[in-house]
Design goal:
Low-confidence stretches: 3-26
Number of strands: 12
Oligomer: single chain
Largest sheet: 6 strands, mixed
Number of domains: 2
Structural class: alpha+beta
CATH architecture of the largest domain: Roll
CATH class of the largest domain: Alpha Beta
Mean pLDDT: 84
Distance between the termini: 88 Å
Radius of gyration: 27 Å
Length: 224
């Protein structure tokens, strides 16, 4: 075998090794936290039988937390933002409704108090997904100082199926303590199935005028 042929074969072999390494690196799952990508090496990522394994300490450290191993136990302390997330989850779980009317009454209070968080807590998972960005863009504040939704006196409930109802109501539009008009709403409320317990959540919000109280997130125009 001449020297040129040897060099060519060695070069091709090296290329295959390098290419294989590049392919292996590319095939490794990518890691994103809040939309930002992190190198898999940061978390000592490895795959075992289809399961992604990462270092607990590395991921806690990256999230600005702290992990301590003592007395055969791991103690993880997360930053304030993580504690706030747990608190928000607890509040949202506490607002989950056991009846369609309860879900609608909570939503009404959220509109009256301009609380996007209260409204969001009683939305269905799908409607949450559709509206979360808009709530965040408005800093979780909805409505307007005037006019605002006044007291709702009565709810009319219509059963669509065992797992879905429609609740309609009228509401006064109040400006400077005076009623200047009347709004109308029809809300669809669905049963959300869970292993622990089922709850009711709003899947559709239809208003005669979606903008009659200012910023109203998730609402569509009510059709006859």
């Amino acid at each position: 075998m001449n020297i040129k042929r040897k060099v060519f074969i060695l070069s091709m072999a090296s290329l295959l090794v390098v290419s294989g390494s590049i392919y292996a690196a590319m095939a490794k799952p990518r890691i994103f936290i809040n939309g930002a990508e992190f190198a898999s090496s940061v978390f000592n990522l490895r795959m075992e039988n289809g399961t992604a394994m990462v270092s607990l300490k590395s991921i806690v450290d990256e999230l600005r937390g702290k992990v301590v191993y003592k007395d055969n136990a791991f103690y993880v302390t997360m930053p304030e933002a993580s504690e706030m997330k747990m608190q928000i989850n607890s509040l949202e779980n506490g607002l989950q409704a056991y009846s369609p009317e309860e879900a609608v009454q909570t939503w009404i209070r959220g509109v009256q108090r301009r609380s996007g968080g209260m409204q969001y807590a009683v939305l269905s998972p799908q409607l949450r997904e559709q509206t979360k960005k808009e709530f965040a863009d408005n800093f979780w504040v909805t409505g307007a100082s005037s006019p605002h939704m006044g007291k709702v006196d009565a709810l009319q409930t219509k059963t669509i199926s065992p797992d879905q109802v429609q609740i309609s109501f009228h509401y006064p539009l109040v400006a400077q303590d005076k009623v200047i008009g009347t709004g109308s709403a029809v809300l669809t409320v669905d049963t959300i199935k869970r292993e622990s317990f089922d709850y009711w959540a709003i899947s559709r919000i239809a208003l005669k005028d979606p903008g009659d109280t200012g910023v109203m997130i998730g609402a569509v125009k009510l059709t006859a």
